[in-house]
Amino acid sequence: MTDSILLTGAMGFIGAAIAADLKCSKYRVKSAVRAVSLHSNTNDQVPIADICSRTDWASALAGVNVVIHTAAHVHVMNDIARNTIEMFREVNTFGTLNLARQAAAVGAKRFIFISSIKVNGESTSLNHTFKYNDVCMPNDPYGVSKHEAEIGLQKIAVETGMEVVIIRPVLVYGPGVKGNFKSLINFVRNSIPLPLGNIKNKRSLVGLNNLVDLIITCIDHPSAANQTFLVSDDHDVSTTELLQKMGKAFGKKLFLIPVPVSILQFLGHIFGKSAEIDRLCGSLQVDIEHTKNTLNWKPPYTMEQQLSNIADSFSNKEG
Fold first, then answer.
1. What is the mean pLDDT of residues 235-246?
2. CATH says 4-178+203-236+284-293 is which class?
């Protein structure tokens, strides 16, 4: 029997990419969206109100046997009211568990939850990696809410027999990426000098195409049941190396000034940008051997290929 899939967050960065890949697949896909759009990559669209502990998923779950849950509440810049632990929990914890319970009740066989590496923690020391079975140490409301959802999902799996697959991506990049990664792209595209020529950290990243490939692999892979997977490109880079690869992808000359990290950290403290400097200079590495070995999977795309995709997407917009 062909799997019937409910995809949440189908209009988001990750969800839209999944929807596009599944559009011509063997799977029947329903996409949960806030408002039905005629100009979308999604297949059948089901309007759903805001995700919370009270959302009624009955119409969306009819006939579904696999759920891919990508929708989440993320940090909203300059909006204190939406960045409380209560808000994160209402959507990411209680909203997720409400959907999972209703999915189990209608007989769904598998629930794929897109969690976050923030469940493991915020950083690693150089050349030390997070592993899938490490003790979890989330540090911010988003990571805490995702961790609590994972715990609840594992309990639901035991109680109902519905298989749960947890995927914890590191920072995801690809066409349409936003946030700090987009800021770096803009600096590179405009050949703006950066004081980042001497960063010797290591960071794991995952290209959108690699993440989507893993998620689709987990739809019906028998060994994915009740597993937790970390995912990356399996090629860690320093911030300096990443910028150099971006420059090559965009065909831009870089001006990277080798400023000592200690000076960057001092300036970050003075100007209230310590968190941003920590992300640029600190390390966060993951070990994906469990993912590769369990699923006989490896990332199909290189970082260079995926950065070229980003560069092509800018060229297409400008053309």
1. 97
2. alpha beta
